[in-house]
Design brief:
18 helices; 463 residues; mainly alpha; two-stranded antiparallel ribbon; globular
Length: 463
C-alpha cells in the first residue's frame, strides 16, 4: 500500500511491519534501466523472498489451527462416528486455534473500521439479544445466541489466522480434501432413501455444502497439476454423486448453477463455455437417478408437489413468514422463534422452519437484522468482483481462479439457501470471512499494481 508523503513514497513491506522510504522519481527512459536499478531490483526480490519465508513461518501455527477448526465446523467429519463425537473435537480444535492465533505474530493488521464486515457482524451481535428479549421465547433465543457467538468466534479466528491469498488457497485445499471424505461418507451410507451424514446437516444442507464448495474444486482442477488436480476432479465427481444420493432438488439446481457460473467466470471463448455448460447440465440430467427424476417431475405441480399446496409445503410456509414479518417488522419474533410462532398460526403442536434464509432472518431479527445479514453476503460478492475487474492489478492465474471460486460460491449460497433455513449457519460466516481475508489482502497491497509503461510515464510527465 502506497501513500504519498512529501517528496517521498512510503510503503509497507509484506514480510514485516517496517516502513521504508524511497525517492519519488521516474526511471530512465530506456529499456532495462541502469545497472544500479537492476541490482536494486534484484535486492528487492531477495528481500521479498526472505520476508515471505519468514511470514510463512510465522503464520504456519495459526494456519494449522484454523484448518482443523474449519474441517470440524464445515464438513463436520467428527460426526461420522460415535467415537469421534465423544472426543469433543470441536472444543479441542477451537482451543487449539485460539492458542495458536495468540502465539502467532500477525502481519500488518488492517484497522477494523476499514472492514465493513466487522461492523456488520458487531451490529448483529448487539441486535440479536435485543430481539431476543422482545421476542416470543427469550431464553430459547439467548441459547441460540450463545451458539452464534461461537460461530462469530470462528469468523474472528479465520480472519486472524489467514494472512495471504496463498494461505487462503491452502485452507481451501484442506477443506476440499475433507469434502471428499464427506462425499464418500454420504455415498457409503446410502440406503435407497434420502441420504445425509452426521447429526447436524440434513440431506438438503449436505447438498448445499457440496454445491458451494464445488467452485473451489474446479479452480484447483484448472490451475494445478499432479495429485491436487486429480483430487479436485475426484471431488467434483464424488460431489455430484453425493448430491444425487441426497435427492435434494435445490441442491442439484445449486450444483448445476454453481458449475455453470464457474465455467462462465473462467477464461476462454464464450462458445466453449456455453458448450461446456450444456454438456454438464445434460450429464446431470442423464445420470440423475430414477427416484430423483420422479421428484423433479412433480416440481411446480399444484396437485403432486406438496410444496405448492400443502400447509407444510414451502409456499404456504413462506406466506405465513411474510405475514409474521409484516406484524413484527422491526424486532421480529426473536432468534429461532419462527417455529413457535408458525405453530400458533398453523394450529399445529409443532411448527416448521421457514425454508428460506432471508425470510428466516427477517422474521426473527426484523428488517434491520435481515438487511444486515444478507447485506454481508452481497457486499462480499461485490468486493470480490471489484478486485477481479480491476485492470490495474496484477493478479496471478491461481489467485484469480480462487477469487472467481469465492464469488461463485457466495452466489451459490444465495441461490441454494432460498430453500433452506441456514441464516445462522457456519456457511455464512465462512464465506463472509473468506471475503474479509481477500479484502484485507487488497487493502494491504498484496495485489501488485501493474507498472506503467514508459509511454504512459512520458504522458504523465508532459501533463
Amino acid at each position: 500500500m502506497y501513500s504519498l508523503k512529501g517528496d517521498k513514497r512510503s510503503y509497507r513491506t509484506r514480510g514485516s511491519g517496517d516502513r521504508k522510504s524511497v525517492p519519488d522519481i521516474l526511471e530512465p527512459d530506456f529499456p532495462g534501466g541502469t545497472q544500479n536499478s537492476a541490482i536494486s531490483q534484484s535486492s528487492k526480490d531477495e528481500d521479498e523472498k526472505s520476508g515471505s519465508k519468514l511470514r510463512i513461518l510465522q503464520q504456519s501455527p495459526a494456519m494449522i489451527g484454523i484448518m482443523c477448526l474449519s474441517i470440524v465446523v464445515l464438513s463436520r467429519l467428527q460426526e461420522l462416528h460415535p467415537i469421534l463425537s465423544r472426543m469433543k473435537l470441536g472444543m479441542l480444535s477451537m482451543i487449539l486455534s485460539i492458542g495458536l492465533v495468540f502465539v502467532s505474530k500477525p502481519a500488518n493488521n488492517v484497522p477494523w473500521m476499514k472492514i465493513p464486515q466487522y461492523k456488520m457482524i458487531l451490529f448483529l451481535l448487539i441486535w440479536m439479544p435485543l430481539t431476543a428479549y422482545a421476542g416470543e421465547w427469550p431464553s430459547f433465543s439467548i441459547t441460540l445466541y450463545t451458539n452464534y457467538l461461537r460461530m462469530a468466534l470462528f469468523y474472528y479466528l479465520l480472519v486472524k489466522s489467514v494472512y495471504s491469498m496463498e494461505d487462503l488457497r491452502k485452507l481451501m485445499l484442506v477443506i476440499m480434501v475433507s469434502i471428499i471424505l464427506f462425499d464418500l461418507s454420504i455415498l457409503a451410507s446410502g440406503s435407497g432413501g434420502r441420504t445425509s451424514v452426521g447429526m447436524t446437516l440434513d440431506a438438503n444442507d449436505s447438498a448445499l455444502l457440496i454445491g458451494i464448495m464445488s467452485p473451489f474444486a474446479y479452480s484447483f482442477f484448472r490451475t494445478t497439476k499432479g495429485w491436487v488436480k486429480y483430487a479436485a476432479l475426484l471431488s467434483l465427481i464424488l460431489g455430484a454423486g453425493a448430491v444425487f444420493a441426497t435427492q435434494s432438488r435445490g441442491g442439484l439446481i445449486t450444483l448445476g448453477v454453481s458449475l455453470s457460473y464457474s465455467f462462465l467466470a473462467d477464461k476462454g471463448s464464450l462458445f466453449k463455455k456455453l458448450v461446456l455448460i450444456f454438456v454438464t447440465i445434460a450429464l446431470l440430467i442423464a445420470l440423475m437417478p430414477a427416484h430423483m427424476q420422479e421428484r423433479f417431475s412433480k416440481l411446480g405441480d399444484a396437485e403432486q408437489d406438496y410444496n405448492m399446496s400443502d400447509k407444510h409445503g414451502r409456499m404456504m410456509i413462506w406466506g405465513r413468514a411474510v405475514s409474521i414479518i409484516k406484524a413484527n417488522p422491526v424486532l421480529g419474533v426473536g432468534m429461532g422463534c419462527f417455529t413457535f410462532v408458525d405453530s400458533d398460526v398453523n394450529n399445529e403442536s409443532k411448527g416448521l422452519v421457514s425454508h428460506n434464509f432471508i425470510l428466516q432472518v427477517t422474521s426473527e431479527l426484523g428488517l434491520p437484522g435481515g438487511i444486515c445479514l444478507v447485506g454481508m453476503l452481497v457486499l462480499s460478492w461485490f468486493q470480490i468482483r471489484k478486485i477481479r475487474k480491476d485492470e490495474n492489478l496484477r493478479i496471478p492465474p491461481e489467485t484469480m481462479a480462487l477469487l472467481s471460486a469465492l464469488q461463485v460460491s457466495i452466489f451459490a449460497f444465495l441461490l441454494g439457501a432460498q430453500f433452506l433455513a441456514l441464516a445462522y449457519s457456519s456457511f455464512v460466516l465462512f464465506l463472509v470471512g473468506s471475503a474479509t481475508i481477500v479484502w484485507k489482502c487488497y487493502l494491504q497491497g498484496h495485489f501488485d499494481p501493474i507498472e506503467e509503461t514508459q509511454t504512459q510515464k512520458t504522458k504523465h510527465r508532459k501533463r
